Amino acid sequence: MATRALLNALSKRPLHFSTTLISRSASTLVLAEHENGSIKAQTVSAVVAAKSLSEDNSVSLLLAGSGQSLKDAAKHAASCHPSVSQVLVADSDKFKYPIAEPWAKLVQMIQQSGEYSHIVSASSSFGKNVLPRAAALLDVSPITDVIEISSSSQFVRPIYAGNALCTVRYTGANPCMLTIRSTSFPIPPSSADSKCNEAPISEVDLSTLDEDYLGKSRYVGHTSQDAERPDLGSARVVVTGGRGLKSAENFKMVEKLAEKLGAAVGATRAAVDAGFVPNDLQVGQTGKIVAPELYLAFGVSGAIQHIAGMRDSKVIVAVNRDADAPIFQVADYGLVGDLFEVIPELIEKIPEKK
């Protein structure tokens, strides 16, 4: 009777074996972004995040593409971080361009054969495009924009444009799918460009890849920023302009100042919507999340959506004519002044970058 009562009690109460299983046998697939034969920094941050899921976590990097660039990226991936245990390479013309539909099908196929406990991607335009589609195919709920990993099933993410933090516990079936903010998982200096313990590289068998996605989307074109300018997402210094610059012609002052400082150029949504600069320079909740060592804001009022994308910057300097502008509430240094006088003076007095 006691045994039957115990079995009845167990059948009526929720079981939490899955969480324990994840922590004991964690294995993570990281979706890798690469360009010009190199792994992007935000992918290495995703590896750092994946390793924090569990001490004995096995981390695999998944690359897709074609040609020599993919081969070079695979070699870089094998030594980009000591936590990488293997590199999976999907070499096919179907992945020549990072279109979401074939990538999502690839992730579904890899998961069905590998049965990973976690799938992680950086919270970049690539990750935001691919991971939700893959999650839908796998019938799981993804957790986005993770800034802290408490355990293999508990995560912290910002809500209300970063004004509050939400702790989320994942209780669904494997895999637990995450996008992480790369700025919250910095790359240790000792891990960058490590040449020791290169991980093995394996080709992915694509013979069983479902191709019913063909025709649903097509590659149109690709634009990239000036190769001489630092990447906005990983730059040490960012110079941002807002609506206060009034025109695309005036925005060139920001670009010239950034050139002198060796900095990346950013913009607010208002500046992008006004056509001053292309939208790949937008910083904010609906743009890129940045956390440079120095963030210079000119003519930026400080809308909550913009602040959500740069509030983690180490030092924030703001210049605005409006002394009551919200940007001054988060700035470490603020100057109430005319940016059309301040920027030319800075350009004049700052020495040329060597």
Task: Write a structural description.
This protein is α/β, with parallel strands linked by helices and 354 residues long. The protein has 2 domains: 8-203, 3-Layer(aba) Sandwich (Rossmann fold); 237-349, Rossmann fold (3-Layer(aba) Sandwich), CATH 3.40.50.1220. It is built from 10 helices and 17 strands. The chain has helices at residues 2-12, 17-24, 41-51, 67-78, 100-114, 125-138, 248-261, 269-273, 304-307, 339-349, and strands spanning 27-31, 34-35, 38-39, 58-65, 84-91, 118-122, 143-146, 148-149, 154-159, 164-169, 176-180, 201-203, 237-241, 264-267, 294-298, 315-320, 333-336. The protein has a 7-stranded parallel β-sheet with strand order 7-11-6-1-4-5-12, sandwiched between helices. A 5-stranded parallel β-sheet has the order 14-13-15-16-17. Helix 5 (100-114) packs across helix 6. The termini are far apart. The model is unreliable at 1-24 (pLDDT under 50). It holds the Pfam family ETF.
Walk me through the topology.
Layout: H1 2-12, H2 17-24, E1 27-31, E2 34-35, E3 38-39, H3 41-51, E4 58-65, H4 67-78, E5 84-91, H5 100-114, E6 118-122, H6 125-138, E7 143-146, E8 148-149, E9 154-159, E10 164-169, E11 176-180, E12 201-203, E13 237-241, H7 248-261, E14 264-267, H8 269-273, E15 294-298, H9 304-307, E16 315-320, E17 333-336, H10 339-349
Parallel strand pairs: 1-4, 1-6, 4-5, 5-12, 6-11, 7-11, 13-14, 13-15, 15-16, 16-17
Antiparallel strand pairs: 2-3, 8-9, 9-10
Helix pairs in contact: 5-6, 7-10
Which architecture of the largest domain per CATH?
A: 3-Layer(aba) Sandwich
Strand order of the largest sheet: 7-11-6-1-4-5-12
Distance between the termini: 83 Å
The radius of gyration over CA amounts to: 23 Å
- Run of helices and strands: HHEEEHEHEHEHEEEEEEEHEHEHEEH
Number of helices: 10
Helical percentage: 25-40%
Q: What is the count of distinct domains?
A: 2
Number of strands: 17
CATH superfamily of the largest domain: HUPs
Percent of residues in beta strands: 15-25%
The coarse silhouette is globular
CATH class of the largest domain: Alpha Beta
CATH topology of the largest domain: Rossmann fold
Uncertain runs with pLDDT below 50, 5 residues or more? Answer: 1-24
Structural class: alpha/beta
Largest sheet: 7 strands, parallel
Q: Could you report the average pLDDT, rounded to the nearest whole number? A: 87
